[in-house]
Design a protein that fits this description.
Cellobiose dehydrogenase-like cytochrome domain-containing protein; 29% strand; 5-stranded antiparallel β-sheet; transmembrane helix; 291 residues; binds 2-acetamido-2-deoxy-beta-D-glucopyranose; globular; alpha+beta
């Protein structure tokens, strides 16, 4: 998932075309590859940690939130914390993202890096409902489903799915956990992450442990202003949450400390991202910084 690099089919296509020396086909392939790179982010992050969440009011519930919104993909992640309880480790979250023919999945993660990230993924169950599943990127090719003291409880008012979009509003209990990677700075900000695919999870969509493949539609870090996300309506809306979503029998215990960053690692996060992009893309990382 996040920050994972893939060899594009464009490269293979170009190599095979060179054998037949059909240069106009090569140009068309090149153009198609450029266009598809533009439409689908592919290997490069489509956001940076310099993008801060902004104030947002959910139209359905009236809840005041902070929200990250990816303009290129229309992936949104809103979040709210209780106004009074300063020690709350729970938040109300809302993922909104586009689907293609009713298919796709989206995810938010507690850190901006793929490695060891603690992730909540959501996708349509194909029957009008939304599935939600905790993952941990201890295996980046197939992040296992995990269980622990955390829980996700759907909030029906802000949960709706149709052929073109999905909105999943939820109470994430005990999710704001430093041992799972959350790294708050002194101003109440934390670099978090997101990912988006237009493909259904592999296997049965109603299996909460279904395998999630590559997030080809977009991914990246952003800065969540958790300290600015306190909402007076939190308690009233949290009280409408349904019971916890059960994990599948495949789920394993979440591993504390799997996400590399301790709290004093903050300054390294951006450097790590740059290193990965540089090593795979031959040093055009400066473009990403400008986004
Ligand atoms: C405040 O949040 C903590 C951690 O989420 C929880 O255990 C506690 O019950 C909350 N207190 C109130 C008054 O809601
Ligand atoms: C699907 O849901 C979105 C968001 O609620 C809405 O804007 C859109 O009109 C809906 N599309 C259809 C075909 O109902």
């Amino acid at each position: 998932m996040y920050f994972q690099q893939r060899k594009g089919s464009c490269q293979r296509q170009l190599i095979s075309n060179q054998f037949v020396k059909a240069y106009d086909i090569i140009s068309i392939t090149l153009l198609a590859c450029l266009l598809s790179t533009f439409t689908y982010a592919g290997d490069d992050a489509t956001s940076t940690a310099s993008q801060l969440s902004e104030p947002f009011v959910d139209q359905t519930t009236g809840l005041e939130m902070e929200r990250f919104f990816g303009a290129r993909t229309s992936f949104g992640f809103g979040f709210a914390l209780p106004a009074a309880n300063t020690t709350s480790t729970s938040f109300i979250g809302q993922m909104t993202f586009p689907l293609k023919a009713g298919l796709g999945w989206g995810a938010m993660g507690l850190t901006g890096d793929m490695e060891g990230n603690f992730i909540l993924a959501a996708w349509p169950d194909g029957k009008g409902g939304v599935m939600a599943s905790f993952r941990q990127a201890t295996d980046e090719d197939n992040p296992p489903e995990v269980t622990g003291s955390f829980a996700v409880r759907p909030i029906p008012d802000g949960t709706v799915v149709n052929a073109t979009s999905l909105s999943y509003t939820f109470l994430c209990e005990n999710c704001l956990d430093p041992t799972l990677g959350l790294s708050l700075d002194t101003t109440g900000n934390a670099v978090m992450g997101w990912a988006l695919s237009e493909k259904a999870p592999l296997g049965d969509a109603t299996d909460v442990g279904a395998r999630l493949d590559f997030h080809e539609r977009g991914f990246g870090p952003f800065t969540a202003r958790l300290g600015a996300a306190k909402s007076q309506k939190f308690d009233a809306i949290a009280a409408t949450a349904l019971g916890p979503v059960a994990a599948s029998s495949k789920a394993v215990a979440a591993v504390p400390g799997a996400a590399g960053g301790d709290s004093d690692d903050d300054d390294d996060d951006d450097d790590d991202d740059d290193d990965k992009e540089t090593s795979s893309e031959g040093g055009d990382d400066s473009d990403d910084e400008d986004d």
